[in-house]
Structure formats: C-alpha cells, structure tokens
Amino acid sequence: MARRTNDPTSGGDKAKVRVVFAEVEGNNESVQEALRTMVSAMGRPVRVVQVKTIDEAPALSQQDIAADFIDDISASETSDDEAPQDDEKVTSRKPRGAGPKTDRNAGIALVPDLNFRPKDHPSLREFFAEKAPANDMEVILVVTYYMQYMMKVAKIGLGHIRTAIGDAGKGIPLDLRQTLRNMRHRKAWVKFTELDEITIATAGENYVLHDMGKKS
Asked: What's the pTM?
C-alpha cells in the first residue's frame, strides 16, 4: 500500500516511497481467501500520513510497512464483524394494556361487624335504590353518606367503603383510592387527609339530599 503526503513537496526536497506487495503461501482455498481479504482492504480509503524527508527522519523498513498493512486489514475485518446490526438497534415496545394487570385495590380489607340495617333508618340497600347512583363517584358518595349520617361511623376508611359497596350489591371501582382523590379534587364531595378518615363535605351532602334520586 502506498503512503502519500498531505502537502506537495518542493522540488529540492528528497523523499522515498516504498510499495510492498504481500506474499501468501498455502493451499488453493487459503490463498483465495487471503486475496479476497487484501482486495477488500485495498478498496477502502487510503490512509494518508505525513512523510518526512530522508534528512529529517529515517526511512521506514519493509517490515514496518508490511506490519502497518496487516494492521489495516485486521482493523477493517474487525470493524465489519463487530458493527451492530439493525435488529439490535430496534427496541421492542409493548402496546398499551399488554402488560400484566395490577390490582389497584390490593390490601383493602373488608370491615366486619358493620350493621347496614340500623334501627330507625332504611337499610343501605333501600337507601341505595332510592338515590340510584349512576357512576363510581356517586356510589362511593351514597355509601359514605349513609355510614356517616345513618350508621354514625366515627372513622370511615377504604375498608368501610369497600364493605358497604359489596352490601349494596355493586362492584368496587377498579381504583378506589384514585376515585376518592378525584372526588375530592374535582367535585369537593369528600374531605380527608389520610384515606382512613374520610368524611362527607358540604357539597357532597347537598348533592345527596337535593340532586340524587330525582325523576327526570
């Protein structure tokens, strides 16, 4: 492989260039493989280096040039073999909903010994049928109102609400905690700092008394 200078030299400077051809010995198959490798390497861009004049530096020996030639071939083969494939660059992305289902109500235990048929009041199911809640927020609002004002439960938590919803014959919302937070922020129907002490706010009380159960 020839080495070329980046800058043209003046006519008075002396330079020396040596072109080395490789000699390969072996059987027919190994010789053909070596020739293909050298032809492939020769087709790549030539590495240009600064050649100093004879007076400035000693000439490269034949062994040094041959070693550089072999290094270039080895580097080209390694870079081709180790180049990342397109398939490795593409990361798979799961579609929405394809992952495992998560139980958002995990850990909410039922509360025993809740009397949903208190004396001098309609049962929870009767009150529930009268108010006819139409969505998850209204369902939670009705059962919480019933426990606070008719059952006189001092501290209403997630377990109380889950137990009451089950007694009313309804399914629990998929994420009871988040539904309660939405009720507080979007409707102002409930008040709580911690989810083990939930109370009905004035807006929620008025909604149960005056807006629910009306016939259109």
From this structure: 0.56
Say if CB 18 and CB 60 are below 8 A apart: yes
Phi, psi of 54, deg, nearest 5: -65, -35
Span 77-94, pLDDT tens digits: 444 444 445 544 445 666
Q: Closest Cα to residue 180, out of 153, 160, 150, 152?
A: 160
Q: Phi, psi at residue 130, to the nearest 5°? A: -65, -40
Contact in structure between 121 and 152 (CB atoms under 8 Å): no
Helix boundaries (H) for the chain: 28-42, 62-82, 86-89, 124-131, 136-149, 158-167, 176-182, 202-206
User: Domains in the chain, please, with CATH?
Assistant: 1-82 (no CATH), 124-211 (1.10.10.10)
